[in-house]
Amino acid sequence: MTMLPLDEAAAVVCSLLPRPAAATVPVAAAAGRVLAANAHAAVANPPFDRAMMDGFAVRSTDAHMGARLRVTGCLPAGSAGGPAVGPGEAVRIMTGAPVPAGADAVIRFEWCEAKASEVTVLRAVPAGEAVQPAGSDAPRGALVVPAGQRLTAADLAVLQGFGVAHVRVWQPLRAAVLVTGSELQTQPAAPLAPGQIYSSNDLYLATALAEEGVSVLDVVHVPDDPKSLAQQFTRLAQQADVVVAAGGISAGDCDYVPAVLRQLGATLAVERVWMRPGTPFCAGRLQCAAVFALSGNPAACLVQFETLLRPALRSLLGIRETSFPCSGKLVHALTLKPLKHARVLRGLAWIEEGQVLLDLRLAQAPSVLSSLASSQCLVRIDQANCPAGTLLPMRWLRPPGSPPS
Q1: How many whole angstroms separate alpha carbon 280 and alpha carbon 300?
Q2: 314-to-10, 174, 310, 376 alpha-carbon distances in Å
């Protein structure tokens, strides 16, 4: 039975995931997708010297206090161009319009006194005043959004603003979720029969996979029955790139998943991990699919997905991330039993004077569901004793909260 340290198990998970294909899509259809190639500006921004204020385009050498300039035209935004500005002249101009030839500054309206076809300068301006030079944001061909970035609304605005019509993005991996447990009631609207509990890992795993841009093809519930498990694993491995299972992987009489996978010919690179919660964890390949079997305990399932699968799915798309990419300072002393395992604890986290602070005094049992909703982070503990002030590696689950009352 292969048992690996947490960091080695994370590397194995990365190696098992199949590389997704890339596709070219319109920018308007790319929200939430991850760039497979750098996106470069198709045009300079701005593409011309642009007025940044409503006012008058002038030659700065003419724009001294009290100067009277002859107004020769008007340029609204969207104009193709206007009359050149000669000595002693000005052109009325609106924000966003191209600065006409000859002008090198814009005097805003409130710094002038305009009468008919003449304007008097009330405040001198230097060259470049209220003018955004062509290409000053970025020139044509500049890198505007790097590969490996998950595209947000702001990214799409940048791409379109630089004339990028299409981008190269990673295609979603196809995944299937299999949850086993004869005790599970999968319909929360239905009453519980004696001995039943409501399932939660099915919804968690399907939602967590979708958050990473994975296409979830199927969510299957299977009783603790080797034949049924074998049938469903075989079917799902033929359809999906990744099969993620939960339950049935410990050492109980009804924990059939590891044995079923081996009987089906799966190559299991990991069967246990030196971590708590979440020691039982299978990772390998079945047919052409990567297969991962997680704990049936809700907290252990979450810890395994968040520290092993989610970082691997992101790394696959060029998003550089480790299992515990951040750190925080413990606000209380923590004493644990000495273990070889890395412990992963749920925690409260908040920011105070620029420092992330951690409180790990939450219910930590693998079967406890309620503390998952109040946790902001997962924290890795590799030592038995942690004095207050110890800096610990952590992973955010949600934005920082408020200090506990």
Answers
A1: 9
A2: 12, 15, 6, 20
* 160 and 37 in a common domain: yes
Cα 267 from Cα 285, distance rounded (Å): 5
Domain range for 154: 22-42+141-170
Whether 301 and 32 have beta carbons less than 8 Å apart is answered as: no
Q: Which residues are CB-contacts of 157 (< 8 A; sequence separation ≥ 6)?
A: none
Q: Are residues 37 and 55 in the same domain?
A: no
**What's the whole-model pTM score?**
0.88
d(CA 105, CA 94): 13
- State which of 103, 132, 161 marks the end of a domain: 132
Cα first-last separation, the chain:
46
Q: Residue 405 falls within a domain, yes or no?
A: no
**Can you tell me the distance from the alpha carbon of 21 to that of 170, in angstroms, rounded to the nearest whole number?**
6
- Are 62 and 33 in the same domain? no
Largest CA distance in the chain: 96
- Tally the domains of the chain: 4
Question: Do the Cβ atoms of 183 and 367 come closer than 8 Å?
Answer: no
DSSP annotation of 34: B
Length of the chain: 405
Give 221: exposed, middle or buried? Use CB within 10 Å, 0-12, 13-18, 19+: middle
pLDDT tens digits in sequence order for the chain, 405 residues long: 678 999 999 999 999 999 999 999 999 999 999 999 999 999 999 999 999 999 999 999 999 999 999 999 999 999 987 789 999 999 999 999 999 999 999 999 999 999 889 999 999 999 999 999 999 999 999 999 999 999 999 999 999 999 999 999 999 999 999 999 998 889 989 999 999 989 999 999 999 999 999 999 999 999 999 999 999 999 999 999 999 999 999 887 888 999 999 999 999 999 999 999 999 999 999 999 999 999 999 999 999 999 999 999 999 898 888 999 999 999 999 999 888 899 999 999 999 999 999 999 998 988 788 888 889 999 999 999 999 999 999 999 999 988 887
Task: Using CB atoms within 10 Å of the CB of residue 145, give its burial: 0 to 12 exposed, 13 to 18 middle, 19+ buried.
Answer: buried
DSSP string, 347-358: EEEEEETTEEEE
Token pair listed for 142 = 């500049």
Q: What is the DSSP string of 204-226?
A: HHHHHHHHTT-EEEEEEEE-S-H
